[in-house]
């Protein structure tokens, strides 16, 4: 406003100066030409008239524009206070209608852009549900407003088998399925809405993850009822583009204040519980507990320690002898991984291999195992002991493009022929492996390596795949033979499995044989090789070499 007043004053001064100049000029000229004093009055009149004309001609439009521009400036400065609604000032609309229209249009576009940005920042574009940011803000507010002594519940929903839908039908169909899931969860939320209390929240966090927050509940039983409703809602088949889609959901449940007093703590607890539900096969819910918290803490600690275990040299290989039931000879050994943990002592694979598989650290551990086996076999070969050494291959290792070249190079550099190497694959990995990986495995077998399936009988075996695989040995899972001494049914099952394996032309190996009676039964059924405590427990290399050199005769007598 001050700038407008200054402009007005400047225009007035300029106009006055112009008028005075015009007056003086006119008076001088008139007197010079006429030289009549009586004309002075006429000159004064003429000069004043010129001054007035100049002032009116220049000051009025300039001051009007200045006032309009000043008013427009004031309107623009009001944006700092958040005013994007008021129209252009009336003086601008009157004196500069086109500018006023442009300003109003600009404000309208800015308001629309802000509203769109707000929607994108607060809502999921696929399902139109609140996104993670919006959910966190609203849930924080509702939790803070919850009455003392009132329980709140967080449900973390992760869809089962959703990736298969994306892979088979495409991401567009996957998005349609997410919308359908969101609608079913909306029904669950709507059915639990209380007109006298705050409305429950439903949000899509990311991918196939949803979350529900119930701010006021009376009991744990009510929470579990809600979780069961959500599981049933998602578990019903979906009709999508002529396909019947069955996905299901794994749901983790956390309750405030028992499992946390903040939304962050509740989400973390519900997430941990969800993973337990998924590990049980999915299609169910799991309530968070202190036991789950302890397991999760142990998993996190194990993951941290595993990242440095290889560099610190904390891993060791224990060797378990394999004996022929026909001759009693030691035919080889299986390398079993051990972790010499600096605090917990010697840890068995079951305590850390699942974590290593989940995090991908297993690939680095697998590289160490291969290098250690190559070095060990090289030393044995130099001493004239050409025993076969078996070790496990993780599915994660097979995902690496350079796995097979690196494996070959490791044994070649140590001068170890592949005829001394046995590669063991789990049954599930063998059934799901890609065709190009099968070709690589067949190449190793052609070069002399022995190929084995480990833990046979625990997964789903495709008989056609079993027949076509490059395969030498099949190792029965310990669960198959555990009861063969006491159970006729167990013996019938093992005999049927043995006949099946014989039908595909493979050697049969039994693991975890603990008694002589078990060994006798397995030999009668046609099992070729065994390993287990009945003959020897796993031992480190130095002990293994001493045992093998002193036990050949005893092993033959047992055989």
UniProtKB/TrEMBL annotation:
Q: Which residues form the GGDEF domain?
A: 150-290
Domain spans labelled EAL: 299-552
Membrane-crossing segments per the record: 12-34
Keyword list, A-Z:
Membrane, Transmembrane, Transmembrane helix
The answer to whether UniProt assigns keyword Transmembrane to this entry is yes
Q: Which domain of life is it from?
A: Bacteria
Pfam assignment, any one? GGDEF
Q: Which InterPro entries match?
A: Biofilm_reg_signaling, EAL_dom, EAL_sf, GGDEF_dom, Nucleotide_cyclase, Rev_trsase/Diguanyl_cyclase
Instruction: Identify the SUPFAM superfamilies for this entry.
Output: EAL domain-like (SSF141868), Nucleotide cyclase (SSF55073)
- UniProt key word Membrane: yes
Which PANTHER family has this protein been placed in? BIOFILM ARCHITECTURE MAINTENANCE PROTEIN MBAA (PTHR44757:SF2), DIGUANYLATE CYCLASE DGCP (PTHR44757)
Q: What is this protein called?
A: EAL domain-containing protein
Give the source species. Sphingomonas ginkgonis
